[in-house]
From TrEMBL, chain A:
GO terms of biological process kind: DNA replication; maintenance of mitotic sister chromatid cohesion; regulation of DNA replication
One cellular component term from this protein's GO annotations in UniProt: nucleoplasm
This protein's name: Sister chromatid cohesion protein DCC1
Record organism: Aotus nancymaae
Family designation: Belongs to the DCC1 family.
GO-annotated molecular function: DNA clamp loader activity; single-stranded DNA helicase activity
Keywords associated with the record: DNA replication
TrEMBL record, chain B:
Keywords, ordered alphabetically: Cell cycle, DNA replication, DNA-binding, Nucleus
Signal peptide region: none
Name of protein: Chromosome transmission fidelity factor 8
A Pfam family recorded for this sequence: Ctf8
GO molecular function, one term: single-stranded DNA helicase activity
GO cellular component, as recorded: Ctf18 RFC-like complex
InterPro entries: Ctf8 (IPR018607)
Cell compartment(s), UniProt: Nucleus
BP terms from Gene Ontology: DNA replication; mitotic sister chromatid cohesion
Family: Belongs to the CTF8 family.
Length: 393, 121
């Protein structure tokens, strides 16, 4: 049933096409015996960014992740994309073995027929759009069973929920690299093959051991020797936890064969503030700043800039106050986030609100764009402020 | 939560197919469906313009190099107890069978082929 050259030429004649103006090769297209529509669900067309295409060509896989009631996402090794079905009014035919004119021109000119079978057809395809990984769930899972130290009763109970890297990949709509990065941000620790978040008081206990040792040994906080730390603090806490604490709050380096840590002043000041603020609803700002500076290690300078996304200052109250407001306690979705911020405070300056919406910015979105979309601006005492677009109950 | 893996059929060189985009729908002449039937002849002019003859129509189109290529994914449901390297039973998978980097777009109205031209009297 295959078409012959004579038949093809006859058709050209009837169509009044001049064979001299055409390349000698012709594709006789037919539908393959198994050709069907994508609606049957056996195959799909996925639109790719060039980088994703390259990854597939290199043999890497992609993974679709989602619960039945969630919007599906597609993950590469390091990025997450929203997955949507795009409809087209046109018909798309997928044709294996079909050559483009450039490819034909490169080959020897034969007056030949290429019998080509259409694999299938579709009027939709999967569309990807880069999105923020859905990482709020990660902290939620790890907080089911925070690590309080090896002697805690919980550690002897094997029923407490614990998650390996594979377990997390099974539960979180994010790429592996994004999950790993977030685990670092959370100061999570892999203990016995499971990822654990440290209970706040325990984490502070470890940190205090280190800073007190630095103080009593009169070390510079930029040159904290690992071995001495492990030696002196080993009797108090597991060595792995001491080293974990140093890694979370400092940067490792080697000097003349010895391992040292340069402690991060900003991180330690921030953690100290967290510790002070979490036990009160609010704090007198002036008093807080004094206590705070006194509580941090010698040589470290506190500054309110260190508390972005952790605490909020109210300069309109008398006296001025400061209170804990953690961005990771707020909703993950844009509208939810703005609603909760405006419920807390009616009008925000850009400077105050920026740390609490920074993480919502996508690849190409700016704080300004978000504010334009989700809020309304006005002037108050010569300063631009933002409030909700609609009434918040 | 479900994890559906999209894996490359072969690491060294995926087949490259072509997408053909047509306006409207293609109907089979008989009710047996499209499978197994001829569609038509695809020619290229020496300038590289695609010319498709389908039934009584000629369509002129153009080749477009896709800024965003496509992957053709073929679904693979486990019927035969597949396991991955970790020896877990895998669920539904998609295999990347081919990549599409070029498409032939036909969007100009087809020209009918007139087979009987009445002679001028």
């Amino acid at each position: 049933m295959k078409r012959t050259r004579e038949e093809v030429d006859a058709t050209l004649l009837i169509a009044k096409l001049n064979a001299a103006e055409l390349l000698p090769a012709v594709h006789c297209l037919s539908f393959g015996p198994g050709a069907s529509g994508a609606a049957a669900g056996d195959f799909s067309l996925l639109e790719l960014e060039p980088t994703l295409c390259q990854q597939l060509e290199d043999g890497h896989s992609l993974v679709i992740r989602g619960d039945k009631d969630e919007q599906a996402v597609l993950c590469s090794k390091d990025k997450t994309y929203d997955l949507k079905i795009a409809d087209t009014s046109n018909m798309l035919l997928f044709i294996p073995g079909c050559k483009t004119p450039d490819q034909l021109k490169k080959e020897e000119a034969h007056c030949n027929i290429i019998h080509t079978e259409i694999f299938g057809f579709s009027n939709n395809y999967w569309e990807l759009r880069r999105c923020r990984p859905k990482l709020k769930k990660l902290k939620k899972l790890l907080m089911e069973n925070p690590y309080e130290g090896p002697d805690s009763q919980k550690e002897k109970d094997s029923n407490c929920s614990k998650y390996t890297t594979e377990d997390l990949l099974d539960q979180i709509q994010a790429s592996e690299e994004e999950i790993m990065t977030q685990l670092q941000v959370l100061n999570a620790c892999e203990i016995g093959g499971y990822w654990r978040i440290l209970e706040f008081d325990y984490e502070m206990k470890l940190l205090n051991h280190v800073t007190q040792l630095v103080d009593s040994e009169s070390w510079s906080f930029r040159k904290v020797p690992l071995n001495t730390c492990l030696q002196e603090l080993g009797p108090l806490e597991p060595e792995e936890m001491i080293e974990h604490c140093l890694k979370c709050y400092g940067k490792k380096y080697v000097d003349e064969g010895e391992v040292y840590f340069e402690l991060d002043a900003d991180k330690i000041c921030r953690a100290t503030a967290h510790m002070l603020l979490q036990n009160a609803v609010k704090f007198n700002l002036a008093e807080f700043q004094e206590v705070w500076q006194q509580s941090v290690p010698e040589g470290m300078i506190t500054s309110l800039d260190q508390l972005k996304g952790l605490a909020l200052v109210d300069r309109h109250s008398r006296p001025e106050i400061i209170f804990l407001l953690k961005v990771d306690d707020l909703p993950e979705d844009n509208q939810g986030r703005f609603n909760s911020l405006f419920s807390l405070r009616e009008k925000w300056t850009e400077e105050d609100i920026a740390p609490y919406i920074q993480d919502l910015c996508g690849e190409k979105q700016t704080i300004g764009a978000l504010l334009t979309k989700y809020s309304r601006s006005s002037m108050q005492n010569g300063v631009k402020v933002y409030n909700s677009r609609r009434p918040i109950s | 939560m479900v994890q559906i893996v999209i894996s490359s059929a072969r690491a060294g060189g995926l087949a490259e197919w072509v997408l053909m985009e047509l306006q409207g729908e293609i109907e089979a002449r008989y009710s047996t469906g499209l499978a197994g039937n001829l569609l038509g002849d695809l020619h290229y002019t020496t300038e590289g313009i695609p010319v498709l003859i389908v039934g009584h129509h000629i369509l002129y189109g153009k080749i477009i190099h896709l800024e965003k290529p496509f992957a053709v994914l073929v679904k693979h449901t486990p019927g035969d107890r597949d396991c991955d390297e970790l020896r877990r039973e895998t669920g539904t998978q998609y295999l990347v069978t081919a990549l599409i980097k070029n498409k032939i777009l036909f969007k100009i109205r087809p020209k009918p082929i007139i087979t009987n031209v009445p002679k001028k009297v």
